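Task: sequence in, structure out. Protein: Nitroreductase family protein.
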Amino acid sequence: MTMETVLPDPSALGGPALFDTMSTMRAMRRLTADPVPDETVERLIQAAVWGPSGGNMQRYEYVVVTDRQVMARLAPLWKRCVDAYLATTGKHAPEGMDEAAYGRMVAAIEHQRDHFADTPVLIIPCYRFPEPRLDEEGLAASARALGPEGTQRMMETQTRFQALAEGSCVYPGVQNLLLAARGLGLAANITIWHLMLEQEWKRELGIPEEMNTFAAIPVGWPAGNFGPVRRRPVADVIHRDRW
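Result:
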């Protein structure tokens, strides 16, 4: 697998501003301790709310943490999750990423871990699908449409289907939030490490048991500079008409 530096194309459909934003939207983990105004945070959440939601149900909720004492109580949880990640999945550089670049990324992760209590804003998107309203007639029609094998596979993958259905209602809004942060000059990165201790996070933040959390997004003013992202070449990832 190869990586290339992605530079914005001013002639791209949609105009240069959006493409420049996307092509320089690195995961920014080094933040200053300067506060982010409430109205700016609300603009980020507004951008998230504009994202599509399955069935237009709009059942998302966003926990926004700015209180220093709350952030200080979350810092040990963040450290435990990061340490667990770096000891397992994050122990080795991904294929195609050289060790020096990965070392810089790990250093940024460790910096964020060690300074987490100074994070200006932490945003946690939550979502919970309503209980499905099913009846025998509808289930029978579904089984006819899918066929016996399809119905069996659907039953076997119901847990995964539910998780993906909820995620598809949340992550478009999260991407909007990240784009808005970059457009406003804010640094941010999306993580799901908190899921390793999700119950502890939910207890600390008073999140209802029935709600699922989908990310922990630190946000603040960047201590470094934005720059072009490095991604796989488009030609390497396209499969036209079939795999």
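The radius of gyration is 20 Å.
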